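Input record (one chain):
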Amino acid sequence: MTLEAIGPHAAESILASLTPLLRNPSRSEEQHHWQSPVDLVTPLKQTFERLQRQGASTQAEVSTTPFDEEGFLEQLLDDKPLVTIQQLADALLSGIEPDRLARLITLAAAERVARFHTQNDFGDWLAVLHTFTYAHAVHERLLRSKEPLLYRALFYGAIAIYHDRFLNVPRAPKPKKEEYAASMAAASTEELLSLLDRRQQVEEAAGWVAAYLDSGRDHAALLNTLGHSLLREDAEFHSFQMYEAAVAEYDHWQSLKGTEALADRAAHTMLIACARYLAAHAPTARELPHTARIAWRLHRGERLFESE
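The corresponding structure, as predicted from the sequence alone:
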């Protein structure tokens, strides 16, 4: 995606930056929680062999039975990983498009963020974020390529969602949109920014966003406001990842509105998850915008102060 945005002329420098990551990788299968209390490594290896042998979706006879997206989503969020592996493999072999499955896996990962309870350790926000952004990356890649080797990434995303289940116990309360619904028709998006001026307004921000989404108002203003809330903070890389992935997935689901039963719910989940994450990491000292203003004034040749 970076090369698409910047252009192929930057391929050498961008791809070279990946070398340290490729040189010193860690393997999920070697970690203890992938092997105990449930052995996930052996079933995955067997499933990959099965997919290779049967030619996942390329040589399969496409099933005429409608695919239960709602049921698959609930399975991804369940605590039965072996069933998830089986259902995912069956779906691929029945001809379900891998990018469709990737879209649902990304939605399940977003649900983990939307359900993340604030009584978890603060650092665990990164756990659900990493799963979500990984699933989003897999989805984007499968929209561009149907290389069968990529199908394995679907399973790793699904298992990461399973491993994150403890971070939804207890589950965060559903957004209290009723508290904001009555005045939402005339509400300004500045109200959301005001909420994010106070620390740890996670549930409040989620309630406000949920009420806004249900009000029937133009979503573009909300997207801009979430972006504004990000840019005014001393945001780190992960917050930018969250916003980019959430908005991109929101756009994917919006394009399916009217054709997919889950489209509205999924699009809303993306923005609620984004709002909760950004609210959890706001406010900061907000020094970066000030630094940017100074740099811009210097660029234009302005004086920063008048001497006495």
